[in-house]
Write a structure and sequence with these properties.
The chain is mainly α. The chain is built from eight helices and two strands; from the N terminus they run ααααααββαα.
């Protein structure tokens, strides 16, 4: 019996090979993790035009989903916060939880000022739904750019083994989820 394979156009094959070579080159440089992560996100965006080629699933339990939305309803600007959360949830990098949209991209999509997005992200961070890491940039002292991540206890995209390891390093979000079955890694 002959196995059928999907035809991949030459241009797509070449783009994939180039992206794979770029990834290997970046990994071989031994750059700081945050820099490597940024470059990998940029390569993935370039390779796919910002759209993942296959169906993508984000895992969030019904209890966690409802708990986050209930908490959002108690926050200032619940409609804006819900919209920002939904964008964060649907734009995370697999196996890291890194939010792939910039503050400006989020503000454009929800129709608000970037400072309002920062306020909402701070609220979500206070509830441990997201967390931030300040990126270290060579030659820059003090404040570097910030990258946001979705707490792996809230939702995840990627390998479950990676989620288990990542979630061991993160606090559980607000008490509503803490008592629920969905909070287990």
């Amino acid at each position: 019996m002959v196995a059928a394979t999907r035809f991949i156009p030459r241009a797509e094959r070449i783009a994939k090979v180039k992206a794979d070579e770029a990834r290997q080159g970046v990994l071989a440089l031994g750059l700081p993790e945050s820099v490597t992560e940024d470059i990998m996100v940029a390569i993935a965006r370039h390779e796919t035009g910002g759209v993942l080629p296959a169906w993508k699933f984000n895992m969030i339990s019904p209890e966690q989903c409802l708990a986050v939305w209930d908490a959002i309803r108690q926050m200032d600007r619940p409609e804006l916060t819900r919209h920002v959360f939904d964008l964060v949830l649907t734009h995370i990098e697999p196996n890291t939880g890194a939010v792939t949209l910039t503050r400006e991209e989020i503000s454009d999509r929800v129709g608000t000022e970037p400072r309002n997005v920062s306020t909402v992200m701070t609220q979500l961070e206070e509830h441990k739904v997201i967390f931030r890491r300040r990126l270290k940039v060579a030659g820059m002292r003090g404040r570097g750019p910030v990258r946001y991540y979705l707490n792996p206890h809230v939702a995840w995209n990627g390998k479950l083994e990676v989620r288990v390891e990542e979630s061991k390093q993160m606090p559980l979000p607000f008490a509503v989820i803490e008592g629920g079955k969905g909070a287990e890694p």
